[in-house]
Write a structure and sequence with these properties.
The complex is a heterodimer of chains A (327) and B (374). Chain A has 327 residues and is an all-alpha fold. The longest helix of chain A has 36 residues. In chain A, strands 1-2 form a two-stranded antiparallel ribbon. The relative contact order of chain A is 0.15. Helices cover 78% and strands 1% of the residues of chain A. In chain A, α6 crosses α9. With 374 residues, chain B is α+β, with helices and mostly antiparallel strands. The radius of gyration of chain B is 26 Å and the shape is elongated. The chains are: A mainly alpha (327), B alpha+beta (374). At the A-B interface, α1, α6, α7, α12 and α13 of A face α7, α8, α11, α13 and α14 of B.
Amino acid sequence: MVKYLIRRFLLAVLTCIVISLLSFIIIQLPPGDYVTSYVMDLISAGQHITPEQEAALRALYGLDEPLWAQYLRWIAQVAVGNFGMSMEWRKPISEVIGERLLLTAVLSIAALLLSWVLALPIGIYSAVRKYSFGDYAATVIGFIGLAVPSFLSALVISYISFAYFGLNVGGLFSPEYANAPWSWARLWDLLCHLPLPTGILALASCGPIIRIMRANLLDELQKPYLVTALSKGMTPWRAIMKYPVRIALNPFISTIGHTLPYVVSGTIIVSLVLGLPTVGPVLYRALISQDMFVAGTVVLLLGVLTVIGTLLSDLLLAITDPRIRMT
Amino acid sequence: MLDIVSSRANSQAESVYCAGQWTLMWRRFLRHRLAVVGGVIVLLLYVISAGAGFFAYADPEAGSATRSLIPPQPIALFNDGRFEPHVLGLKRVRDPQTFQLVYTPDPENRIPVRIFGEGFQYRLFGLFPTNIHLIMATDEAGNNALNLAGTDVQGRDFFSRMVFATRVSMTIGLVGVTISLLLGVTLGAISGLYGDLVDETIQRIIDILNSIPTIPLWMGIAASVPPDWEPTQVYFAVTIIISLIGWTDLARVTRGRFLAMRTEDFVTAARLDGASEPRVIFKHMVPSFLSHIIAATTLAVPAMILSETALSFLGLGLRPPAISWGVLLQQSQNVQAIAMTPWLLLAAIPVIVAVLAFNFLGDGIRDAADPYSR
C-alpha cells in the first residue's frame, strides 16, 4: 500500500511539473512579451522610447534571459504563492482568482457528486430491470447527456427557466451577496444558486457512468455467487446491494481521475455561458486581452487542483479496496 | 456429402463456418440496428459534406440587409389541391407598436420551389463547375427567396450555412482522428511491443495527459493562434490542437491488443517459421485487431467534433469567414439572443445528430469487432 501511494504521489508531482511547463508555454506563446505591450502603450500615449531603454526594461524584468531561466524564476515565485500582477485588472493575480478558484472547485465537486448520486441508482435499476421501459429511458437520457454539449444544455435550460418560469439563472449569488464578505447568509445564497449549474454539469457526465455501471452490474448478475445468495433465501434487493453492486462500484472510484478533468472542463464552459463567478470568465477575458500571466496561472492552478483531486480519489480507493492495499 | 450439405440448417452452419472474419463481422454489425442507422447517418453527413454546394441553395456568404433575421419558412407542398411546391414571398413591415421589423408572408406572391434549379456557381466535389442545386427558389430579381432555417443578422441563409458548416465540422473530426490514429497506434504499438521502460514512459505520459482538464489548456493554446492567419491555417492549427490529446485512448487500445497477442500461438508460430518482425506485426498481428482500432477510431470522432464546436463557440477555434457548427452557434451565446432568434440554435441539431450517429456506429463496430465471441 505504501509503495502504491508513493508511486501515485510521484506521478502526481510529475504531472504537476508537466502542467507547469504547459502553462509556461501558454504564457510564452503569443508573440511579444510584457515589455512589447508596455512600449506600445507608451508610444500610443505619445511618449518616445529608445531601443536601449527597451532593452534595459527587458533586463529589469529578466526577459532577456534564456527561457528555462525565466521558467525557473516564474515557478519559484509561483511555489511561494506569488503569481504576479494582472495587467488587465491592475491587481495581484491571487486576488483576482482566489475566491473564483474556490467556487470552481465547489461547483466541480458538487457536479461530480451529483452525477454519481443520479447515475449510480439509475445504472443499478437499468441492469436489474434490463430492457424495461426505465432502462430504455435511462439509456436515452445518458445519450442525450453524451451528445449535447454542456454549453448548449446550459443555454437551453437557462432560456427555458427564464422564458417560462421567470427565473434568472445567471451567477452563483444574488446581487446583494455578489461582493459581500463570506457569511452564513451568503453561503445559503450560494447553496440556493448551485442546483441548476450543478445539474447541467451532472447531466453531461452521468451518461457514461450509467452505461458503465449497467454493463459492470450485468456481468456480475450472472455470477454463481448471486444465485447461491438468492437460493439461501436472501431477499433479492439485499443480495444485489450487498455483493454485485459493491463489486461493480469499484471501477468508479478509480475513474475519478478521468471524470474530474472532464467535469472541470465542463465547469469552465458552462460558467462562461451562465456568467458564473468561477475562473472560467477570467480565463476567457485574459486570453482575449492577452493577459497571459493570468491565463497561465489559471491553467496551472486548475491542472494542479485536478491532480490533487485525483490523488485524493486514489487514497480513497486504497482505503475502500483491499486488493489495492496488497500490491 | 451431398445430403449433408443439402439440409438447409447445415448449409447455414456451413456458411457461418466458411465465412471469413470480415464477413462474420459484417453480419454481426447488421444485427445491431442502431449501429446501422448510425452508419447510414454518418455516410449521409459525409455525402452532404462532399456535395455541400449542391445541397445548399444559397451562397453561404451572400447576405443582404433587407433579409436580416427572417424566421424559418416552410415549403408549402400543395396549391389548391395540386402538387406545386412553393414558398410565400415576404413583406417587410414595421410593427406599429414595437417599431420592430417583422416579415409577413404574402399569399399573393407564390414563389415556386424547383428541383435541380440553377443558382450560384460552385464546383461539385471541388472539381466540376456547375450551378445546379437540389432545390431552388428565386424571386423575380433572381435572388434566393427560400430560408428553410431562417437567416442570420447579415441576412445570410442559415440552412445553406449549416450545410457548408457540415463540411468543415465533419472533416475536422476526420482529419483530427487521422492524426490521433497515427500518434496513438504508433505509440501504442511501441508501448505494447517493447514493454519495460518504453512502455512505462508512454503509459505515464498518457496518465499525465488524461489528468489535465483539456478545455482550459485548449483555450490557452488556441487563443495564441495569430489573428492574421488564413482560415485554412487556423483550421489545421485547431485540428492539431484537438488531436494532440485525443490519441491516448487509441494508444491504450493498441497497446492492450499487442500485449494480449504477443503470446498467442499463431504469433509464436509465425516467429518460429522465421518471419521477420515487421512481417509478424503487419501480416499476422495487425489484421487480427484492425477491427478494434476501427471501433476506437469511430468512438474518438465525436469527442473531436464536440471539442471543435466548444472552442469555436467560445470564439477561440475557427473564426469567420470559416463556417463550422461551432461558429454558427456563436450567434446564440446568451439568453437574450436565443429569445430573439431561437432558430439560430438549429445549428445544434447537426452536432447532436453527428455525435449520436458516431457513438452508435462505434458501439456497433466494437460489438462486431470480435465475431468469434458469443
